[in-house]
Design brief:
single chain, 52 residues, mainly alpha, 2 helices
Length: 52
């Protein structure tokens, strides 16, 4: 009857696909190393600031 018109999952239910730039940022080792040190510096700033 009308069963083939029912859509179980809408397109909005699926996550968006990453862009090429996002994939590059995830795979670039140099960028990941840089972000790692930036994050560590932020954490150290919080720790050192709390101990003074």
């Amino acid at each position: 009857m009308g069963y083939n018109k029912i859509k179980v999952y809408f397109d909005e239910a699926y996550p968006p696909l990453p862009t090429r730039f996002t994939q590059f940022k995830r795979r670039c080792i140099l960028l990941q190393i840089f972000r790692f040190f930036v994050l560590n510096l932020k954490i150290m700033r919080i720790i050192v600031g709390g101990h003074s």
